[in-house]
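Morning. Coffee machine broken again, so started the prediction first thing and wrote up yesterday's gels while waiting. Chain of 114 residues, entered below exactly as on the submission form.
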Amino acid sequence: MTEVLFALSIGILFGIGVFQLLRRDLIKAAIGFAILFSAINLFFVAVGAFEGDFAPYVSNVEAGRQTSDPLIQALILTAIVVSFGSFSLVLGFVNIISRRYDTVDSNDLNKLKH
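Came back before lunch.
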């Protein structure tokens, strides 16, 4: 049941992120970028568990279960840092565009076509 819940939540977050990323408003596109990265991080968490019965960050050696792969945990930490840096860069671009062109609507940015 947990696999279905993870799959549905990852799919919904990924769909919302892509939908927001394709919007004309640059702020909504930036928020879609953050939602998309959250879906990717949740995907890493979902595939990190060996049996699917416990989260990858839980060590359950006493019960005889195999613990999760630490490589997945390192990938999640790296993905969080990269997504935070990328989101900061995108917000910086949106800030510069909104100040320079006085709009956040991508339809109004005719000067970028030249």
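The CA atoms of residues 37 and 83 lie 6 Å apart. Going to sketch it on the whiteboard this afternoon.
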